Amino acid sequence: QKEVEQDPGPLSVPEGAIVSLNCTYSNSAFQYFMWYRQYSRKGPELLMYTYSSGNKEDGRFTAQVDKSSKYISLFIRDSQPSDSATYLCAMTVMNNAGNMLTFGGGTRLMVKP
Amino acid sequence: DTAVSQTPKYLVTQMGNDKSIKCEQNLGHDTMYWYKQDSKKFLKIMFSYNNKELIINETVPNRFSPKSPDKAHLNLHINSLELGDSAVYFCASSQGPGQYFGPGTRLTVT
């Protein structure tokens, strides 16, 4: 069993839909929870990160963390075709040497016009 | 200006060769990393490095070695390349929890 599980998709939605992307994890020591977007043949792009439990909003994106359930979500409102990409969740425990991210396998999202 | 850059973008080489991938960041970050993304798109940490400490993922073969000439650069040297080393290698840097990734180097070993 992987430390971080993510449904690979693909997830296909019509333009304007609300998208829900999720990850579960097993390591209760994780402190920071991140979401990355990766377009084909590009590097991962940091969308947002949260510390511990709670919500964080940035424009059309909302991240939620439920540490008691070991479950995190990313919601995308008013989805656009340009949101079509692979979304990766990542988690880490900060230490003096920085942090080494543990990634989920990614969910491929397709937003159709 | 590109925050994290890598060269080359593509690298095709034969088994047994030694190769290097270069990474530079202009963000002023203290910590840099190397990740490997396999054919199934799974990203896995290889190294974490700052000017004080190198942390190696225990699953990384010792044929792989990071070399840092200064705080803004972390190069990846690979000895005796094997077919299984074919992947996309990403460099990243951070000053806090969020890491910023380079565009990747697609390595193909034939």
Structural class from helices and strands of chain B?
mainly beta
Largest interface: A-B, 27 and 28 residues
Percent strand of chain B equals over 45%
Helix content of chain A: under 10%
Content-based structural category of chain A: mainly beta
Number of strands of chain B: 11
Tell me the major beta sheet of chain A: 6 strands, mixed
Oligomer classification: heterodimer
**In percent, how helical is the residue content of chain B?**
under 10%
Distance between the termini of chain B: 34 Å
Query: What radius of gyration of chain A results from the CA coordinates?
Result: 14 Å
Mean of all residue-level pLDDT scores of chain B? 92
- The shape of chain B is globular
- From the N-terminal CA to the C-terminal CA of chain A, the straight-line distance is 37 Å
Q: Overview of this structure, please?
A:
The complex is a heterodimer of chains A (113) and B (110). With 113 residues, chain A is mostly beta strands. Chain A contains no helices and eleven strands. Chain A has strands at residues 4-6, 11-14, 19-25, 32-38, 45-51, 54-58, 61-66, 71-76, 85-92, 102-103, 107-112. In chain A, strands 2, 4, 5, 9, 10 and 11 form a six-stranded mixed β-sheet that branches. Chain A has a five-stranded antiparallel β-sheet with strand order 1-3-8-7-6, with no helix packed on it. Chain A is globular. The model of chain A has no long low-confidence stretch (mean pLDDT 93). Chain B has 110 residues and is mainly β. Chain B is built from no helices and eleven strands. In chain B, strands 2, 4, 5, 6, 9, 10 and 11 form a seven-stranded mixed β-sheet that branches. In chain B, strands 1-3-8-7 form a four-stranded antiparallel β-sheet, with no helix packed on it. Chain B is globular and about 35 Å long. At the A-B interface, β4, β5, β9 and β10 of A face β4, β5 and β10 of B.
